[in-house]
Amino acid sequence: MAKLVRKGYLLAPGPTPVPNEVSLEGARETIHHRTPQFKKIMDEAIEGTKYVFQTENDLFMLASTGTGAMEMAAANLVSADEKVVVISVGKFGERWEELCKVFGAKAITIRKEYGDYVSPEELDDVLKQNPDASVVFATLSETSTGTVMDIEGFSRVTQRHSVLLAVDCISGLVAQPMKTDEWGVDVVVAGSQKGFMLPPGLAYASFSSKALQKAEEVTTPRFYFNARAYKKDPAPWTPAVNLIYQQRAAVRLLKEEGIENVWARHEVLAEATQRGVAALNLELFSKRPGNVLTAVKVPEGVDGGKIVSIMRDEYGVTLAGGQGTMKGKIFRISHLGYVSGFDIVVAFTALEKVLRRLGHSVPYGAGGAAVMEFLEKEGY
Ligand SMILES: *Cc1c(COP(=O)(O)O)cnc(C)c1O
C-alpha cells in the first residue's frame, strides 16, 4: 500500500498525548524564575495541581520525572534501619522496594503475582504483625499490570495503626478518584507525562504536616529532594519554567471540566475498552482493572511483541507491551489523559488488522462496534 499519510496515535500509559493548547504554552518566551511575573504563574500552577490532588497540603513541584518524586518521598520519610511496609503487585511496587533499600530501610514487602492486588485487610494483618513499622508505600495504579488498589481502604488501616501512607499516583492521578485530604493520605506523588497531558519532566509530591514532621526527623542524606528546602522556597533551584506554563494550562483545563467529570470520563473509556476486548474474545490480565489502562492477555499462539511493534511501526498506533516478566504475554491499551473514544476505536481497528496478519482471525469492526455502542449508551 502506498504510504500516504502516517498519523500517530499515542495510547501508551506515559508519555500520553499533549493537547495543542498545552503544547503552545510551552513555546512562550522563557522568563526569569526569580521575578514576580513567574512567581504568579508558579503559584497558579501549584494551586491548580492541588485541586487535582484534592489537597490543601504542601505540594512541591520538581524538575524531574515521577521517579524523582518517589525518591523524595522515600528520602524524607525513612531513615536507615527503619522498618517500612511496601505493597508490591508489579514493576512500580518493586521500585518502592528498591528505593527503600537504597536508603537502608528494612522493607517488609506484601508481594502478589503480577495481575493480582493487595486488600486493606491484608495490609491490616501485616501491620498487626509489625507494630514497629512506620510507613506504608503503596501504588494507586500499578501501570505494569493495569491494576488499581483501594487507597481509601489502605488509608483507613494506616490511620488506625498510626503509620504514614505514601502513594505512587503517577499513572493513577486524573484517571482514578483520588481524594488526598478526605482519605488522609500523607504523601502523594505524580508525574507530568501521564494524566496531566504534559511532556515528561515535571513531578509533584504533596506532604501532609505529619509527613513534613517526619522529614525533620529522618537522618537520610538528601539534597535536591530535601522536602525542607521546598517547604522554605517552592523553587529552591531553577524550576522547569516552560513546563510550569504548561502545567498551569493543563490544570486549568482539568478544573474547567471538573475533576469528578474527568474521573467519570476515564471510567467510561476504560469500560468501553473492556467491552472491545470482550468483543474480540480476548481476556483482561488484571484482577482489578482501573480507569488508566487496560492490560490484555496475548492470545495463544500469537507473538505479543509483534502485536505492539507492527501496530506502532506500520500503523502508527503506539500501545505498550509487557514489561519484565510480562514481556510478550500482555499488551496494554492506555486511555489516560487526552484520549477520545475515537482513539480507542482506532486502536481496536489497528489491533484487528494486526491480529489477522499474525494468523489470529477476528472480524473487522467488532472491537470498535462494542466501544461505540457502549459510548452511545453512556451518552458520549
Ligand atoms: C510511569 C510510572 C512511574 C515512573 O515514572 P517516571 O516518570 O518514568 O520516572 C512510576 N510509577 C508509576 C505507577 C508509573 O506509571
Structural key phrases:
380 residues, Aspartate Aminotransferase, domain 1, Aspartate Aminotransferase, domain 2, 7-stranded mixed sheet, 3-stranded antiparallel sheet, 14 helices, 14 strands, 44% helix, binds pyridoxal-5'-phosphate
Distance between the termini: 34 Å
Which descriptor suits the 3D outline? globular
Strand residues, percent: 15-25%
CATH class of the largest domain: Alpha Beta
**Radius of gyration from the CA trace?**
21 Å
Largest beta-sheet characterization: 7 strands, mixed
Summed up, the domain count is 2
**Count of extended strands:** 14
CATH architecture of the largest domain: 3-Layer(aba) Sandwich
Share in helix: 40-55%
Backbone structural class: alpha/beta
CATH T-level topology of the largest domain: Aspartate Aminotransferase, domain 2
Average pLDDT:
97
H and E order: EHHEHEHEHEEEHEHEEHHHHEHEEEHH
Query: In terms of per-residue confidence, which ranges show pLDDT below 50 for 5 or more consecutive residues?
Result: none
Could you tell me which ligands this complex binds, including any ions or cofactors?
Answer: pyridoxal-5'-phosphate
CATH superfamily of the largest domain: Type I PLP-dependent aspartate aminotransferase-like (Major domain)
What is the strand arrangement across the widest sheet? 2-10-9-8-5-3-4
Helix tally? 14
